[in-house]
Amino acid sequence: MKAIVVREYGEPEVMRTEETPVPEPGPGEVLVRVRAAGVNPADAYARSGKYANKPPLPYTPGTDGAGTVEALGSGIASVKPGDRVYLARSVTGTYAEYTLALESQVHPLPETLSFAQGAALFVPYATAYRALFQLGRTRAGETLLVHGASGGVGVAALQFAAAAGIEAIGTAGSERGRELVLREGARHAIDHRAPSCRDELMRLTGGRGVDLVLEMLANENLGADLAMLAPKGRVVIIGSRGEATITPRELMARDASVFGMMLWNISASDEAEAHGAIAEALAGGKLRPVVGTELALDRAPEAHRKLFEPGAYGKIVLAP
Length: 320
What we know:
Elements: E1 2-6, E2 15-19, E3 29-39, H1 41-48, E4 64-72, E5 84-88, E6 98-102, E7 106-108, H2 115-118, H3 122-135, E8 143-147, H4 152-164, E9 167-172, H5 175-183, E10 188-191, H6 197-204, E11 210-215, H7 218-227, E12 229-237, H8 248-254, E13 257-260, H9 268-283, E14 291-296, H10 300-306, E15 315-319
Helix pairs in contact: 3-4, 3-9
């Protein structure tokens, strides 16, 4: 089979397509024919070697994916060959034509979703759910700001918020991205590159500010976020690429809170809750993963470069 293999940490070009054996499932394992693999910033950080969860070399990247069950190891009861599934992690990596996964890592993929959309489910939607409800404790009637709302996590957050009756404001750096933000549930869309971004948000909230901020680039935005919070407001940091400077009095004046999160820290019970919420919302037609770019497997280096280009739009997916 074809698989992307990383044999040294470094720039995107360290990812190379190789012919490798199709893995055989052992007890408690499921072999999945991967039809689409999701590309996440965490994949790029791991490949660079500058990530807390640095994988041992050599390895095949990829956490998200979707496809069909090919074969089962012993003791598997929840799926059968031919089932459509999405992956929430795997044993051998999803940037490949086949991957091994534990039974707990495969989840039913509704017929209403494409495989590419299935590959956009786990990391974006579990991250959004955890940030919104498990850490951010938001609820109906509150106002939410999603900073960088046109990417995979941002879109997921807007859809979850709309389903929960939370008024959302989203930012995006392109007109196309702002159109997507409005289409996916935001009441307002703001250009986060504009100098008037903060003033516009305060105007939209009548000077009160927002109850919760989901922040994708804390090193650039966190200081300003704190000044846009309502009393007892919260910020959940989902992404950051460096140091941030803040004024603690902005927090003190509001009795506000800042939470950092990394999805890999989620407990088993919280992850089960997130998967349950995703399944329920999918069944109700409230979640619609947006795939912005689909590339062939051997274009994985290009996919990693696109992750950090301006103008994020939905999820980037590889097609093995």
